[in-house]
Design brief:
- The structure holds 2 protein chains of 2 kinds.
- In chain A, 29% of the residues lie in helices and 28% in strands.
- By secondary structure, chain A is of the alpha+beta class.
- In chain A, helix 5 links the parallel strand 12 and strand 13.
- The longest helix of chain A has 18 residues, at 284-301.
- Helices cover 49% and strands 0% of the residues of chain B.
- Chain B contains 7 helices and no strands.
- Classes of the chains: A alpha+beta, B mainly alpha.
- Chains A and B meet through strand 1, helix 1, helix 6, helix 8 and strand 17 of A and helix 1, helix 2, helix 6 and helix 7 of B.
């Protein structure tokens, strides 16, 4: 493929997805016009941090950034993986931001990946570490990822703005390639599981969230079990916060998740386009009700995954061997649509997208690009 | 009820979902997407507008993202919780009853078959 020529892209959107696909498809990229008109132009600290992380898990990759940080040149290297790695994710985005691409990259490494990540474990922007354990990992298993070695250990939790959480992620490598799926039966919700957490606040907050969420579910389903995970002392990170992660399991083995966390906002973020975050925290009862509603909304959509996981689902389908994958999702999220476009640009794969009017869902079909774990072969 | 109307219109448009996502269409509604490979800002803004009408107000969105849309925040989670339905409402609860094991199993089975 293109070895010397760079693929040219613009803007900071889908930053992780672009670098991920660039790495997997060995396509060097140049990204220009990264926030040129912002009062703080160029790459954000979490994006720099992600580049550093890529340097850690790959060999021989080249990253060049211009003075203002508005232009990035990235030449991917060979995915190495490896044990006992450590990365400080910083405080501008949570660990979930890094986990999303990392769990895919890890699969195609030379050695299994084991990395300790420090930073924010739970916030409202990115999927929480609990959701990765309860939902995302199950999705990976569908695609033939071995369940041994796939693990995420939460050693301590950290909320914004100060963080202080720590997790250890292990991702196995796939021996050859993923396996294609036909995954269109979303089934019926048979149980709802979840976990609440609280750091540096009373554990009473958790009971309120739990109670409120249960109140909504119990009219639909008796089998609701929400655990609590109260952290105190050094395990609780440096900032107060509380939150909840819920997952609905269906009869056909689908996992639909929703999560959120509440804590005081980050100070530096204020120049971003962001809703004016009130410093008054949402009461736990409202948080519980809100997230239960989000979950029911996701269930109502009727896909095999929730809207947060659509992008990952399509990505995994595209990385499969040259077999047909068929999946059903609810309304396409903007992030998923961008993902589909990037998959086309990098891997040359177009999905066949068919709406299913009777159930108001969308069925997508594609033939995988047949990505093999090439790094492994070298060894 | 407004929302359901919106949903229905969106559904009607889904016949050309392929073109929506990938562009290359001559249909009126998707002309803006057609050139999305030529990575200009304005085209992107237009399809972004187009994709989100159900989730959030069109106007608000274009204002928010105008001119800055190639730098949309990289976030897989939809954090727009403003239009949450009131799930405490009994009717609404009944409307998704069949998505749960406590609902009508035969209906659910049919649902699965219809789409196969």
């Amino acid at each position: 493929m293109v070895k010397t020529s760079y693929m040219r892209l613009k803007g900071s959107q889908q930053f992780r997805q672009r670098l991920l696909l660039s790495t997997l498809s060995a396509t060097p990229v140049i990204i220009e016009d990264i926030r040129p008109d912002d009062s703080w132009p160029g790459l954000r600290s979490h994006e720099i941090s992600f580049l550093r992380l890529l340097e850690k898990i790959t060999d021989d990759c080249v990253v060049e950034i211009n003075e203002t940080g508005t232009k990035l040149k990235y030449k991917p290297g060979v995915l190495m993986g490896g044990k006992h790695l450590m990365h400080d994710c910083g405080l501008s985005r949570s660990i979930g931001y890094f986990l999303e691409p990392l769990i895919v990259l890890g699969l195609f490494g030379k050695k299994p990946l084991m990395i300790r990540l420090k930073g924010i474990t739970n916030d409202s922007k990115d999927p929480s570490v609990d959701t990765f354990r309860s939902t995302t990992f199950h999705m990976l298993k569908r695609f033939g990822v071995p369940s041994e070695g796939l693990n995420l250990k939460i050693e301590s939790r950290g909320c914004p703005p100060q963080g202080g959480g720590e997790v250890v992620l292990s991702v196995p490598i796939i021996q050859n390639s993923l396996s294609a799926v036909t995954w269109i039966d979303e089934g019926m919700v048979k149980r709802i599981r979840g976990v609440t957490f609280s750091t540096r606040v009373s554990s009473q907050f958790e009971h309120s969230m739990r109670h409120a969420a249960r109140g909504i579910f119990n009219r639909l389903l008796p089998d609701v079990n929400i655990e609590t995970d109260h952290k105190s002392g050094p395990d609780a990170g440096s900032s107060p916060g509380y939150g909840i992660s819920l997952v609905a399991e269906t009869t056909s083995g689908c996992f639909i998740s929703a999560d959120t966390a509440v804590s005081y906002s980050r100070r530096e973020d204020t120049d971003d386009i962001q809703d004016e975050e009130q410093e008054e925290l949402t009461p736990p009862v409202d948080v519980g009700e809100q997230i239960a509603s989000v979950l029911l909304g996701e269930v109502e959509q009727g896909g095999v995954v929730d809207s947060t996981h659509q992008g990952l689902l399509f990505l995994l389908c595209a990385l499969c061997p040259q077999d047909v994958s068929k999946v059903r999702v609810g309304k396409l999220s903007p992030y998923a649509i961008e993902t589909l476009r990037h998959i086309r640009d990098f891997l040359g794969i177009k999905f066949v997208i068919m709406p299913d009017p009777t159930t108001e869902t969308v069925i997508l079909k594609c033939v995988g690009c047949g990505l093999k774990n090439l790094s492994r072969k070298l060894s | 009820w407004k929302e359901s109307l919106m949903e229905r219109t969106v559904l009607r448009q889904t016949t050309n979902l392929m073109q929506l996502v990938y562009g290359k269409s001559t249909l009126k509604s998707t002309t803006s997407v057609a050139e999305e490979q030529g990575d200009g800002e304005d085209e992107l803004s237009e399809d972004d507008d187009f994709f989100k009408p159900k989730g959030e107000g069109k106007k608000k969105l274009s204002e928010e993202l105008d001119g800055d849309n190639v730098n949309v925040e990289d976030c897989s989670k939809l954090t727009n919780h403003t239009k949450l339905k009131k799930w405490k409402d009994q009717e609404l609860i009944e409307s998704i009853r069949d998505r749960f094991v406590t609902g009508d199993w035969s209906k659910a089975a049919r649902r699965g078959q219809d789409s196969d």
